[in-house]
Write the structure tokens for this entry.
Amino acid sequence: MSFAGHLLGGVQDDEVFGAIGDELRRQQSQIELIASENFVSREVLAAIGCVMTNKYAEGYAGRRYYGGCRFVDVVETMAIERVCRLFGCRFANVQPHSGAQANLSALYALASPGDTILGMGLAMGGHLTHGAAPTISGKWFNAVAYGVTEEGVIDYEEVQRLALKHKPKVIIAGASSYSRHIDFKRFRDIADASGSRLLADVAHYAGLIAANLYPSPMAHAHVVTSTTHKTLRGPRGGIIMTNDEALAKKIDSAVFPGVQGGPQMHSIAAKAVAFGEALRPEFRKYAKNVLDNSIAMANRLKRHGLDIVSGGTDCHMAVVDLRKLSISGKIAETELEESGITCNKNAIPFDALPPSQTSGLRIGSAAMTTRGLGMSEFEKIADLIYKTLSNYGKSGYSTARDEVRAEVSKLCKEFPLYD
Ligand SMILES: *Cc1c(COP(=O)(O)O)cnc(C)c1O
């Protein structure tokens, strides 16, 4: 019986559970390098599939719009208490269904349509929700974007210049493909100078921040948002944190009823489990390994002669500049997937290729570190990436790829997942 079937003790719907089983086997048999992904624990999985999915609980613990909320109140209170301990903050909202919902709610609490917001440009490493044109953040606000320098690090002078010029209501510090430390204090100083509120979005770095391995924005930002499913290794979802009581009230109203209806209590239960895991000493060890592995993988790619945007990494991810190999991110992504290595194409700063092609590849260490791989295995993975990409289009390519596939399969058997 499949793992998914095992949870339910037998299933009727073979079509859907067949695909779930296939997805399980894909996860077990591929090297997962997508920087935003991870593998949750069995306890998180059990919570996400629990009976709390049946419960309506609009409102907040102790002040719900439905009866029968005693036990969901327990998990939501626990999730809040745990996440506040984890990040050292006074107030948290654990209801956002995703990181995008968390950001929309935070913007809804901090600004009004037509206001100016300043965020990192999508093509420079920022997230869609930080003001990109096709999103609500880009359409309902006057979105101004900052970027990175030629060296690939945040251009703080540009941030300051744009902030003083546009006096944005909100400055967003955070990124989806940026491998260096973010100087949140410098962002706060700029925000103070321009009369702006600072929103830090640590969706990617949250797990490392919880483990004190990446700078925390908590002392500097007015509001902090995050996903719960990236390095934090919880269920898919979002959180919003602050130390400001008045802002906390605004945020609660912004999430519900502002942006969302009933909270997904099964997901909140799973968040509580994941926060509990992240509070344990083993998680700090895990996060340290994530960081060591990421650096080892990036350094090994550099030794193969490839460039890493910004020259390296201070976190779980790196963006590989593929221009020296004369191969696009799109081709690299497809070819690596064929070899059993999953990652995603990504723009490099000032990319000459369109977003559908790109000149870069984003890789991350969070998921495979959960499977137990260490630095030597991550160096091996870098070798396999290089072997695939450097042989692409050459006569020995299919042999090279077969060899890579065999190595991938060996690694996956050596470090089993959900077996
Ligand atoms: C992933 C990410 C998000 C969005 O999270 P979703 O859960 O996919 O909505 C928001 N901000 C940043 C910086 C991210 O990397």
Notes: The CA atoms of residues 252 and 324 lie 49 Å apart. The radius of gyration is 22 Å. The chain is about 45% helix and 15% strand.
